[in-house]
Amino acid sequence: MSLIFERIHTDGIAELSYLIGDDSEGVAAVFDPRPDVDCYLRLAREKQVSITHIFETHIHVDFVSGSRELCARAKSAKIYLSHEGGARYGFEHEGIADGDVFELGSALITARHTPGHSPEHMAYLLSEKDRPGAPWGVLTGDSLFVNSAGRSDLLGSSRAKELAEQLFHTLHDFYLTLDDGVLIYPAHGQGSPCGEDIGDRLSSTIGYERRFNAFLQFNNATSFTKHTLTDAAPIPTYYPLMGTLNTRGPTVLGNLPPVPGLPPKFFQEAIENSDNVLIDTRMMLAFGGGHIKGALSIGGLPVLSIWAGWLQDSDQPILLVLDSDDMLETIVRYFVRTGYTKFAGYLVGGMAAWNNAGLPLESVGQMTVHKIKRSGEKLQVLDVRAPDEWKDGHIPNAQHIFLGELREQLGKLDKDKPTAVYCDSGYRATIATSILQQQGFSRVCNIPGSWQAWKNAGYPVEKEIEKERK
User: Fold this and answer.
1) Rounded (10°) angle between helices 304-311 and 427-438
2) What band does 469 get if pLDDT is binned at 50, 70 and 90?
3) b/e per residue, 434-444, with b = 16+ CB within 10 A?
4) Rounded distance between C-alpha atoms, residue 359 and residue 377, angstroms
5) How far is CA 375 from CA 89, 227, 436, in A?
6) How far is Cα 442 from Cα 28, in angstroms, rounded to an integer?
């Protein structure tokens, strides 16, 4: 036997999926696949195995499950899903329960019910067929992360306490009973909203986490629950939609959705159709230098998946402005991962073609941190970072509105006052300036470098803890 073990890291949503198999038998399983499944099929061909099993650790709420898509394209595969915790699904699959065992050649996979992040959550112990009682690894899904543990509040406040208590017992009654040398392979890395302060390593061991993971240091469910549910980060607005979609069963696409190319005049006509939404995927300085009126800026990095989920209705057809036409497939993949499959078209030739056609432009000013410092209170400075980032330190006298809640809290701002927006480096601030422009803020600018530039310039920092003490 030659064990096949491959980890697939999907940046942006910080998702980790796995292909595990035995090349002597020519079989493999995929765990927690993303919706653009070509990578698994390509990897299976490279390793000369057939994907026969598709497992999920739980009902995902942060991205579209790729299980149905992969099953349709792999042909010989079956989907295996947890029926623990009362979970049921709207599509064909095989139900599994705690203790079920699967053989992939000499590789042995044992399902273990690990509730807390969600009621149905499963972990999968990995062992050799000849040593079934000595697992060498465990796929932990969203229950145990490197340096962290899964959130228990994603199904709403009414279930948060119950799930937090279940998670405590999962961590203590299952994970901490495993040998120190057992390797852990979680379903998310650093940057995922599904856990707090997830470490930057993609794997760990039970022994290391036993010593250093803060979530494993509590000896009772009460203190653990208080820790996990206090000051939790905002829940992305699209999570409930993803949970419903993945329970019902995502539509099998067969490929990436088509996006027609539209020359400038036709693109302009499509913008005038109120059913469509215009999204500019160029980065901060390009968007600021000139963009189409009404465009929402979401720069074309992998994290686009998350911010599209936060800010955009997936039922609205999308019109795309790209940095270059050859970025189309990459950008569409980012959208598909959080449920966006309707596209009205993209601007052929990008903004160069728009400019050459003599069509109108808007711009966003750029203001350095040095000018911000000199402006004082003449300027309305807006911080759109996450609450924990704000608490750790911010520009003195700035206002804080988390980007994901900006549209709902615009009433806190003075629309007539010049406004400068910052985040950590400028990406989220650019999204925010585009929202402010959409809402009639005419004197708005971005701060290139944002918080990083402010700190590196050595300017004063204000912290919420220090303000509370005063």
Assistant:
1) 30
2) very low
3) bbbbeeebeeb
4) 37
5) 57, 40, 20
6) 56
pLDDT tens per residue across span 343-357: 999 999 999 999 999
- 230, with CB counted inside 10 A (0-12, 13-18, 19+), is exposed
Whole-angstrom Cα distance, residue 452 to residue 424? 6
Q: What pLDDT, in 10s, does the model give residues 121-180?
A: 999 999 999 998 999 999 999 999 999 999 999 999 999 999 999 999 999 999 999 999
Residue by residue, DSSP assigns 167-192 as HHHHHHHTGGGS-TT-EEEESB-TT-
Q: Which domains does the chain have, with CATH numbers?
A: 3-248 (3.60.15.10), 261-356 (3.40.250.10), 365-469 (3.40.250.10)
Tokens in use for 22?
Answer: 């035995």
Tallying the residues shown for the chain, one arrives at 470
Amino acid at 336: V
122 is written with which tokens?
């499963």
Residues forming a β-bridge with 345: 319
Report the chain's C-alpha Rg in angstroms: 24
Token pair recorded at residue 20: 């595990």
Annotated catalytic residue 194? no
State residue 126's pLDDT score: 98
How is residue 457 written in tokens? Answer: 């310039």
Nearest to 370 by CA among 379, 357, 360: 379
pLDDT digits (tens, 9 = 90+) for 272-323: 999 999 999 999 999 999 999 999 999 999 999 999 999 999 999 999 999 9
What is the reported pLDDT for 316? 96
What DSSP line would sit under 120-140, residue for residue?
T-EEEEEEETT-TTS-SEEEE
Residue (of 350, 357, 334, 359) closest to 286 by Cα position: 350
For the ranges 233-242, 332-341, 368-377, 458-467, the lowest mean pLDDT is seen at 458-467
Indicate the pTM of the whole model.
0.94
